[in-house]
Amino acid sequence: MRDQPASTLDDMAEVFDALGNSTRRQILDLLRLTPGISVGELAGHFDTTRVAVMHHLRILEDSGLVISLKEGRVRQLFHNPVPIQLIYDRWTTEYGGFWGSKMADVKYAIEHPQPAETQGGSDGGDRQARVARRDSRKDRRRLA
After folding, report:
1. What number of other Cβ atoms are within 10 A of residue 28's Cβ?
2. Among 64, 70, 90, 127, which one is least packed by beta carbons within 10 Å?
3. Distance CA 77, CA 54 (A)
4. Mind listing the pLDDT tens digit for each residue in 46-81?
5. What are phi and psi of 87, to 5 degrees?
């Protein structure tokens, strides 16, 4: 984690915290579907008080997931997907590379099976083949 500046990691923590609440995720979905919606219109979609919706909006704005523009007395709300994209890029790129190389190894092992004699004798070869098949099944389950 030394490669990431502290502020970036803190920003990610705020985004994860904000996304951890179902009401906030609902708010983001509504903002994505109706960009520019007002706070009053947004609050009308929930059975909670306007104050509770404002509390969730403040958390979403602090995490950078919501941008608001004020025109006169009306605040227009917009979903900002950039923080989610940064998390997606950070995590899927790293883990995608890991699984990509593992799957290439599995594909090669399936396409080019080793004869038992070249795997270190009949007992050792059978054991190695069983371990390789077991590991391959685990990898496929993780990907499913």
Report:
1. 20
2. 70
3. 12
4. 999 999 999 999 999 999 999 999 989 999 999 999
5. -65, -45
- Provide, rounded to the nearest whole percent, the portion of the chain with pLDDT above 70: 76
* Spatial separation of the C-alpha atoms in residues 83 and 66, rounded to whole Å: 10
**Which string of DSSP letters, residue by residue, matches 36-53?**
TEEHHHHHTTSSS-HHHH
Distances in Å between the Cα of 9 and the Cα atoms of 4, 21, 62, 83 are: 7, 19, 14, 11
pLDDT band at 12, cuts 50/70/90?
confident
Closest C-alpha to 98, from 128, 144, 142, 132: 142
Coil vs helix vs strand at 66:
strand
pTM: 0.63
